[in-house]
Specification:
- Two copies of one chain form a homodimer.
- By secondary structure, chain A is of the alpha/beta class.
- Chain A folds into three domains: 2-67, Winged helix-like DNA-binding domain superfamily/Winged helix DNA-binding domain (Arc Repressor Mutant, subunit A); 87-97 and 326-425, Alpha-Beta Complex (Aspartate Aminotransferase, domain 1), CATH 3.90.1150.10; 123-303, 3-Layer(aba) Sandwich (Aspartate Aminotransferase, domain 2), CATH 3.40.640.
- Helices cover 44% and strands 14% of the residues of chain A.
- Chain A has 16 helices and 15 strands.
- Chain A starts with a helix and ends with a helix.
């Protein structure tokens, strides 16, 4: 953390004004005689906490946010400080340290050595061998019923929806439990679907059963069976966006709707962007038999959107077991951070806090026994640079969820201490 | 060519039946004591001519087509030989040898070293610095009127149309000069546009002025001005798909419609897949001011579809001048092949052939002074494994165009000799 603290002080004290360029990782490592990884992680934490911003190819620069930090911590009341985010417990990002970039780099390099193969247009549906690996992965980890024939690969879930929507055009309406998921609703609106949040009134039901609340609640097996039965009886198509399912469960995950339904009435959507890097755009879709046939008739009309090198790399990466170990590793890191945060909350807030149960290693959820609305609580925390997830099911006490995804383990303590100060002063 | 001939014989003689695996490039090079590049090129030619097929990660295998080749050359009449393509002069692919994979590999590798940057979600519009380079490139090579603000990057033209269509939904009809371009028409149909080939009756005019005929005719400057005037007067939006423009011109290319129009009433579409590798999926769109504003309001709804590493690599690749030299190099290769093909035709057909003018280094166009329809001519050539482009503007003589894109320089002679035999026997 020495790197982190060193620059944090320089920036907060204003000695490094907004826009100042930080030394390159290589130079910094050399000057301060530490490993490049140390510097890299230091810089990454500074990014996480908003002190600096990466600029393409030219390195790191002090951010506006960075300079306002000091002020924020002193005069917390001033509303104009909203932009100073110190600790983001509302992030849906990934833990920077959990991903082993070197391994991925190695696989992509060897993919690029397959010169000849890269000279040919790929299968619009996605490379056969990658589809085979994904089908295997979906069967083993999510109980999905599928073969490589049912799988379509695309650069992000939206690209896949652009293929799916025309195939289900006859169904004119879609229900989103969470209408705030604009990136999903927008695509359907673009195709002229009626978007609402009423399952009865819709022909398509778009759900994220592994993510039924923002604090990681998952749909119970019973509810899943009820939903698939309901959909089947009323001839409605289910689109299961299983985004993030990998981190929603402590132990054995609940089977996917697609699996419980037997894969006949459910379109399954999965993505690797959250598992690997947000900047790697690879998602997949599992189509039921009927839609698979409809797709095969049209498939040549839609070019594949994922570069072949990425597909080849991911295929070997999964085949060699790196995906699974990556998931295990992240799960462990998240569970660890949740444990630490839980202890810190108990320690700093004592009787004021009651820890609530969650079924996701990514989230800590608790109730503060103070006379305040959840909304007011989150607002005053945000004023001090702490973003929280409102999780209020009751109105009596503020109920809050913390996502430990992106906040570094070393920052948890400072975050809780600051939060305690906020609560005390409000 | 020794590698090529060696396996060609083994395959044609049936000594290597369909599905037989060829030795790995490394092993083959070692056994036959030649460079890996030699083997690689030998294999590539075998692929070009359909003797073998690359199978993902597991190497090369003898194709069905390969085994039928022998029969094809002997009994040319049998109609059942359609699948035996020896020389594809109708291809819209790229020349395998013209692309320097090593350079691209180097840039992608260094892009992957920017670990920190890859941890962040990118700009939905595309990385700022890549957009800047593309804007510069479009201004310099295609006279486009644009800045990085007007540019949207996407994984293929279709992905960009998926963003554009909703923005122009109010215009309910689109005209394609070439309705056979299903991959374009399909997207508009998906969004409920009326697709036709009548400019008067359409609100959007989709054109490829650099590709107005299959044999590389380009739209004249006068016609371009007429079109932009027509569109402006009748309040129609032009979508200029400038696909392949880089190879459509011998010297200074005709300015783009977007440039001639001043960039106010034209959406410009460009792609790098043809310039680099078909398997690299990067395209861009230049929006007019009005649509740019409309896009900015919605941009956060559409995730970027191109992996960030590819974007970073392409940015430096262009910045360092490799794109331009790559284009120059390919142009030279194509012009060279066209010259050789022209000479071979004159040599083998004598008075029977009249070479016609084309304005693209990619194409050779000629008229055969024999009593036969163009269609019949192409048919009998295809029976012998030669794919040609029918280019008949008159009905008296067969008029044919040859694309030299994918046929290896070393195969031109054999191709023309075979074609001469076909013509003689028919």
């Amino acid at each position: 953390m020495q790197i982190y603290d060193y620059y944090k002080d320089l920036i907060e004290s204003g000695k490094m004004p907004e826009g100042t360029r930080l030394p390159s990782i290589r130079r910094c490592a050399k000057e301060r005689n530490v490993s490049k990884t140390t510097v890299e992680q230091g810089y990454m934490c500074l990014c996480d906490d908003g002190y600096i911003l990466p600029k393409s190819q030219s390195g790191y620069y002090v951010s506006k946010r960075g300079n306002t930090t000091k002020k924020t911590e002193t005069k917390e009341e001033t509303a104009s400080q909203k932009n100073a985010i110190l600790y983001d417990f509302a992030s849906s990002g990934v833990d920077a340290e959990s991903f082993n970039m070197d391994i991925w780099r190695r696989y992509l390099k060897s993919a690029l050595r397959q010169g000849e193969r890269l000279l040919f247009y790929g299968d619009p549906q996605g490379e056969y061998d990658l589809r085979r690996e994904i089908a295997k992965y979906a069967r083993e980890t999510r109980n999905c019923v599928c073969t490589e024939e049912n799988i379509v690969i695309g650069a992000g879930v939206q690209t896949l929806l652009n293929i799916l929507c025309p195939l289900v055009k006859n169904k004119k309406s879609v229900c989103f439990d969470d209408l705030s998921y604009r990136q999903g609703t927008a695509i359907f609106s673009d195709y002229g679907f009626k978007v609402n949040d009423n399952r009865e009134k819709s022909n398509i039901i778009y759900v994220s059963p592994s993510y039924s609340t923002r604090w990681g609640d998952v749909m119970s097996v019973k509810d899943r069976f009820d939903l698939t039965d309901f959909a089947r009886k009323n001839n409605k198509l289910i689109i299961e966006d299983d985004y993030g399912s990998e981190f929603r469960y402590f132990n054995r995950p609940t089977p996917s709707l697609q699996g419980l339904d037997g894969g006949e009435n459910v379109v399954y959507l999965g993505t690797f962007s959250k598992l690997l890097l947000p900047s790697i755009r690879i998602s997949f879709m599992i189509l039921p038999k009927g839609l698979t046939e409809a797709y095969m008739k049209k498939k040549d009309l839609y070019n594949q959107t994922v570069s072949k090198a990425d597909q080849i790399a991911l295929c070997s990466y999964i085949r060699d077991g790196h995906l699974n170990s990556q998931i295990r590793k992240s799960r462990k890191i998240y569970a660890q951070k949740s444990k630490i945060l839980t202890d810190l909350l108990a320690e700093n807030f004592g009787k004021t806090v009651t820890i609530l149960k969650t079924n996701s290693p990514l989230y800590v959820r608790c109730k503060f026994n103070i006379n305040m609305t959840t909304e007011a609580f989150c607002k005053s925390a945000e004023k001090s640079g702490i973003l929280l997830i409102p999780a209020n099911t009751s109105e009596e006490y503020p109920e809050i969820a913390f996502s430990v995804a992106t906040v570094g383990q070393n920052n948890l303590s400072n975050a809780v201490i600051l939060l305690e100060k906020v609560v005390r002063n409000s």
